[in-house]
Amino acid sequence: MGNVVLYHLLSLDGVALEDHSEWFTDGGPEMFANLGRVIGPQDDIILGRVTYDSWVEYWPNSDLDPFASFINTSRKHVFTSGTPGATWANTTVVTTPAAEHVADLKQQPGGDIGIHGSIGLATSLLRAGLVDVLELVVAPAVAGQGRRAFDGEATKQTLALTDVQRSSLGTPFLTYRRRTATADDTAATQPAQACTIWSWTPFAG
User: Fold this and answer.
1) What does the pLDDT average to over 73-94?
2) Nearest alpha carbon to residue 101 among 65, 119, 71, 77
3) Fewer CB within 10 Å, N or C, the chain?
4) Would you say residue 97 lies in a domain?
5) How far apart are the C-alpha atoms of 101 and 107, rounded to whole Å?
C-alpha cells in the first residue's frame, strides 16, 4: 500500500480534538478542502476501539462530507480485544498486535492507510516507526487541559516539513514526512525543512 498517514487536529499546546472540545472553531471551506486532500488517496482506515465506539453511533447516519462518504465506504480496521457492540459496514475486527497488522497491511496493494482519532493507537504506531506522514491541523488556541495527542515516550525521530498551508482564519495545515538520515541525506536530495522531535509533543517549549 501507500503511506500510513496520521491526521490530527491539535491546539497550540498539543491537546487533541475530542468530541467535547470547544477550542476548535474553524469550520471554513479550507478545512474541508484540506481534509479532502488528506483522505483522497486513502483506501483503509485504522481505528482504536474507543474511537470506533464513538464514531459508529454518528457517522453511518451523517451526510457531512467529505468525511461521511469516506469513512462509511472505506475499509476499516478496528483494534480491540473484544467484539464491538455495534456493527459498521466494511469493518474488520483485529485482535492481533496493531504494529504487526499495520506492517502487514503496508505490504498489500492499495492506497494510503489513514489513522483518524485513536490517540493511543496512533502513539503506539508512531513509536513503532510505522507512520510515514503526519498531517497536523493546529488551532490558533491554547486548550489548557485535555489529552495530549503525542503523550508517551518515543525514540528520537526526524521529520521533514514538506508543506504548509493555512486557512483564512489562521489555522495552519502542516505536512511532515518521516525521514531516515543517511550519509547521502543532503540538502540537495532533501530540500524540505527538517524537524527533529525528541518526544511526541511537538508544541512543548
Assistant:
1) 94
2) 77
3) C
4) yes
5) 10
